[in-house]
């Protein structure tokens, strides 16, 4: 029998003894608490001796003859309990001796400070509330330093409840992400936007360049797709004269998993009638500023590598083709056609010496694809401070208005922070004839094997033909937003349950 199994058996035996004593921890349904651990500590430090009731998880345990201590945590804070045989009686004292780290208990007693000055509860009554049958990876703490605990990254993400128990920094980021989502809602509600819900299952999954997941609708005997974007339904609401709408919803993209991508993620999209690209930039700036201030109390974000970013002011604005010319040496004049761009790059492999990223012009089959590859290789790594990159090729922007005087480019921007895209926005097409032509061009790309090209959506086109006012729209990944504002290095740090490859034996039948 393994040591782990033996320890579980020992805890099961302790549970059985608790039940024999008439204290089944799983039979208790409710325990009233006077206050949080944090507030009780503050009261004890101010010399309060009031009677209190508190419940929490045992995170440390120390037995010393006929007395003992245990720290109890409510998740956000902890307070010490002092247990004495003479106060608890025979049954209560035996219950204390049956405790293990990880158990939940309720205690009643008075606040006081120990001889060493530690805020504590002098426990007069002990109530077991749950028994932990597993050994938890709780670390050691002293003088603000912590060690041991759960450090295996794979296990942290796979068993997130253990991560929340063991790692204060992981808990801080995940809790901040939840608060951040609420702050986003308050921001848009305060600006008169209407929060709406749109279908998760769709016949036509449009609004982005991505492969969808598919499923079957039994009631209609119909194959449907999980949405990859919120855009087209939200713009249909704009066509219905709802002038400001937003949605925070789950979307699904059947693509690779990495530190920057999760196939299932939360997306914020917002649309406002009678505004444009510049209006969307101002809203994005205001959103980051407001959310950072509300959740963190500052517009300055500090990252693990020591760098800081300020979100209190305006973001830098650059034009995509200008940056490509400046950083890659490919002149803007050569980016007017695929042939000219390939001549400028030559047939050789071009490598960015600063990052090692590469591009081979002959592997690109559209001008838009080549331009976005140049963006990825040469421009993105330089976009560390909050920056809007403006002006994207029409082939990769089928839902954005054309740039006046340059029909091969569009009125689109992407926001970048620390080399990562954080938002995507357009002055939206409201010309149904233009939009149909774009969809037809996309169909041509699909016919050539591009599975991510945009499908034809007749329902959306019908809505456009009924009339849509000039509109600005923007999409922001909530996970990316949280990643930036918490200073996290990877998306998985701010997703409670990131997509993980099943361990052996876990795959669904």
Question: Could you please describe the fold and organization of this structure?
Answer:
It contains 14 helices and 23 strands. The chain is an alpha+beta fold and 509 residues long. The protein has two domains: 134 residues, OB fold (Dihydrolipoamide Acetyltransferase, E2P), CATH 2.40.50; 256 residues, Bira Bifunctional Protein, Domain 2 (BirA Bifunctional Protein, domain 2, 2-Layer Sandwich), CATH 3.30.930. The strands form six sheets. Strands 8, 12, 13, 16, 19, 20, 21, 22 and 23 form a nine-stranded mixed beta sheet that branches. A five-stranded mixed β-barrel has the order 1-2-3-5-4. A three-stranded antiparallel beta sheet has the order 9-11-10, with no helix packed on it. β21 and β22 form a beta hairpin. The protein is elongated and about 90 Å long. The model has no long low-confidence stretch (mean pLDDT 93).
């Amino acid at each position: 029998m393994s040591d782990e199994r033996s320890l579980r058996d020992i805890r099961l035996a302790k549970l059985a003894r608790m039940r024999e004593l008439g204290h089944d921890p799983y039979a208790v349904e409710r325990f009233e608490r006077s206050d949080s651990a944090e507030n009780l500590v503050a009261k004890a430090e101010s010399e309060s001796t009031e009677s209190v009731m508190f419940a929490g998880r045992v995170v440390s345990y120390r037995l010393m003859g006929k007395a003992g201590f245990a720290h109890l945590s409510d998740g956000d804070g902890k307070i010490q309990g002092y247990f004495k045989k003479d106060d608890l009686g025979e049954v209560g004292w035996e219950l204390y001796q049956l405790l293990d780290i990880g158990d939940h208990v309720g205690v009643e007693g008075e606040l006081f400070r120990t001889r060493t000055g530690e805020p504590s509860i002098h426990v007069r009554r002990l109530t077991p509330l749950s028994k932990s049958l597993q050994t938890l990876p709780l670390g050691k703490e002293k003088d603000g330093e912590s060690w041991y605990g759960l450090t295996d990254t794979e296990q942290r993400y796979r068993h997130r409840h253990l991560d929340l128990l063991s790692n204060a920094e992981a808990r801080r980021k995940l809790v901040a992400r939840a608060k951040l989502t609420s702050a986003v809602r308050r921001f848009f509600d305060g600006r008169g936007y209407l929060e709406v819900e749109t279908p998760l299952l769709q016949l036509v999954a449009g609004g982005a360049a991505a492969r969808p997941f598919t499923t079957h609708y039994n009631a209609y005997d119909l194959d449907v797709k999980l949405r990859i974007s919120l855009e087209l339904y939200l713009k249909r609401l704009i066509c219905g004269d709802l002038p400001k709408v937003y949605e925070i919803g789950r979307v699904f993209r059947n693509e690779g998993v990495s530190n920057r991508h999760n196939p299932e993620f939360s997306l914020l999209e917002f649309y406002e009638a009678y505004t444009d690209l510049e209006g969307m930039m101002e809203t994005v700036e205001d959103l980051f500023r407001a959310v950072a201030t509300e959740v963190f109390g500052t517009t300055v974000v500090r990252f693990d590598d020591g760098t800081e970013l300020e979100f209190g002011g305006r973001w830098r604005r650059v034009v995509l083709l200008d940056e490509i010319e400046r950083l890659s040496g490919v002149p803007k004049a050569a980016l007017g056609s695929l042939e000219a761009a390939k001549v400028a790059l030559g047939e050789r492999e071009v490598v960015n010496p600063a990052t090692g990223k590469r591009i081979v012009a002959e592997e690109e089959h559209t001008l838009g694809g080549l331009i976005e590859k140049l963006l990825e290789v040469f421009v993105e790594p330089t976009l560390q401070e909050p920056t809007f990159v403006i002006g994207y090729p029409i082939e990769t922007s089928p839902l954005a208005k054309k740039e006046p005087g340059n029909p091969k480019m569009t009125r689109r921007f992407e926001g970048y922070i620390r080399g990562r895209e954080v938002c995507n926005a357009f002055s939206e097409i409201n010309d149904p004839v233009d939009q149909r032509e774009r969809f037809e061009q996309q169909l041509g790309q699909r016919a050539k094997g591009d599975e991510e090209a945009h499908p034809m959506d007749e329902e959306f086109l019908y809505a456009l033909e009924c009339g849509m006012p000039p509109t600005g729209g923007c999409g922001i990944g909530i996970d990316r937003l949280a990643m930036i504002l918490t200073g996290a290095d990877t998306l998985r740090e701010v997703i409670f349950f990131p997509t993980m490859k099943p361990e052996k034996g876990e795959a669904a039948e």
